[in-house]
Structure formats: structure tokens, C-alpha cells
Amino acid sequence: MPHAPESHEEASYDPVERDPVHYAEQALLGALLLAPELLRTTDGLEPDSFANAAHGALLGAMRTVPAPEEQGSQAGLAWLQAVLKEARRQAPALTAAYLHLLISACPRSEHAVAYAAMVRSEHARRSIRLHAETLAMAAADVTVPDRPGHVLAAADTLARHPDGLAQDFPAHSRSLPRAPLRPAEPPPVDDEADDQERMLLASAVTWPATVREMRWLAAEDFVRPAHGGLWQCIAALAHRGDPLDPVTVMWEAQHRGVLVADTTPSEVLALLGTGVGSPDYWGSRIVERALLVRARAAADRITAFTDDPANTVHQLITGGRRALADLASVRRRWQQAAGPSPASTATFETPAAPRAGPRSHVPVTQPLARTAARPTAARTP
């Protein structure tokens, strides 16, 4: 009759199954314990290259303890004991039995170079993921005084890391990573972002000359697609030199397909009827927010690539560069927006004349009223 486990019996603390890199690390360490002379083939590995901290401690101990001068059984046994003693300084749970398990886990000690390459590859994956997580945390950090500079510094560090890895991991035919299984969710629309976009659109109708200088603001920078469409209408009228007022913008929006069920003509007229501040001020706030959002999206995309074990290091490098290229485009536009305003705009521009005609009966939305009450650091038309 088979023995039924008692409730008080201890269960194994090890998981039933491990990631593939765990077995690669065991095979590599087993090969090095069997043939210490193979340590010279692992110069590219460091103790922190191992996913298992105890495995890293063993590698460090093997490099610290002098290798046996002769390969006799007594010399080899003494070296193993010295390695175990040194490794237990960092990993006290290591036992002699586990060293024997590592030796038995190595199929062929002459394949140590291949095992080491597996360990390096997985360490590169973890390091890319770590840099991507650092970028995501920088994008979400609201405590730093210069959020764009903080985010771009993290992005530059992330960009330099794959460049260094590319020398160690050659390219192959399949260079693009597999797409993430789940697409990234769009960021939520908060009241502050909505207010800034509304104030930009309303003030842009009053300052058409400023709009012509704002080529750095794109429709994809807006959190609401309808606001991005209205900005395209305003920019098109300003660049053509056509009359710019709420009615002409509404007409342009109709031809561009911006007027839909949730963006009616009366709502457009009400939105564009009252503007406070200058459009370049509000535009710079919008493109700065877009920079932070795009940085978080790039970080999440790279992290999703690293989550897929089928992607090789070279594919992670390629995918990471493409994700950061999307960030680079909005970075250039943010740098243009953060620069000094053109002298002609600040000195010679005059606001457009207020539109004549009956006052709109559509009330201004509450977010717009809240924003109008906030003081701005820009000129007021």
C-alpha cells in the first residue's frame, strides 16, 4: 500500500519546474567543478550574471580559490571543499550535496562555452528589462523638478545598453521580435490634460500667427483624438492664411471628418469661444505630457518583448531600438517647443478680432471653466 504523506511532513521549498536558464547555470557550474581549467573560457561572466544568487556566489568562489595544481582526486576534493567554504560566505545554504548535484547536472563538460553563452544571453535579457523598468519609473515620477530631463536621461541609458550588447550577440535572419501578446492600453484621460487641450484650441483661434510657428505640435500628442483633429483644422487654416475663427474651424472640421457623434458643431463653437493664455504655452505643456506618455509606452513595449522567451537578445536589441525611435520623434519636437519663442511672434503679433454675431447658447464645459481660472505663465491676448 503506497505511503500517504502526513500533514506534518515538510514540502520541498524548490518549485517543481524551473526556467531553462536555471538548468543552463547548473550545467555550466557542473562543468567548471569537473574541469576548473575551463574557468578561463568564462571571462565574460560575472557573479551577477546568474539568475540564481547562489550560483553566482559559486562562480565568484571558484575564481577566488586557487585552482588545484594537479588533477588528482585528493587535490580536486580539497579544491571543492575550499570553493564551498568560500561560496558559503555569500550563500550560507549551499551544501556539498548541491555541488555533487551540479556535477551530475552537466551532460558534457566540454560544452561549457555553450552553457556560458546561454547564461550571458539570459542576463542580457534581464538587464534590458531592468533598464526598461527604470525608464517606466522615471516617466511616472512626479517628485523630480525636471521630469522631461529625468526621463530622457533614463532613455539615453537604455539606448546605450543595447548598443553595447550588440557586439556580443550577432545578428541573424529573424531580427524583429514577436509582437506582444496583449497590446498596450491607452493612458487614461485626466482632467488636467483635457483642460490644457481645450485651452490650447481656444487660444489658437485668437493667435493664428503663433499657430504657424508651432510645427512641433502634432495631433498624436493629444490625449483626445477629437482635440487632435481640431488642432489639425486650426493649423491648416493658419498655414493657408485663411480666416480663422470658430465658424471656419467648424467648417474645416466637417470636411476633415472630425465632426462625429461626440463632437457636434455646437460643442466646437462653445469650445473655441473663450481662450486664455497663448497657444505656445499650452502647446508646450501638451508636448511635454506626450513625451512622458511616449516614454512610458516605449518602456512597456520593451518590457513586453523581454517577457517573451522566444525573442533572442538580438531581437530584443532591434525591438528596443525601434521603440526608442518612436520616443526620439517626440523628443525632437519637445526640444523645439522648449526653446525660446520667435521674436516676431512675441513682438509683432496682434490677436485676431473677436468674432461678431450672436453669442452661443451652448454652455462652456466645466473642465474649461476650471482651467480658465488658473493663472498662466504666458502672455494673455
UniProtKB/TrEMBL annotation:
Superkingdom of origin organism: Bacteria
Annotated stretches, region: Disordered: 163-192, 334-381
Ranges of Low complexity composition bias in the record: 367-381
Transmembrane regions: none
One Pfam family of this chain: DnaB
InterPro entries reported in the protein's UniProt record: DNA_heli_DnaB-like_N_sf, DNA_helicase_DnaB-like_N, DNA_helicase_N/primase_C
Protein name: DnaB-like helicase N-terminal domain-containing protein
Species: Streptomyces gulbargensis
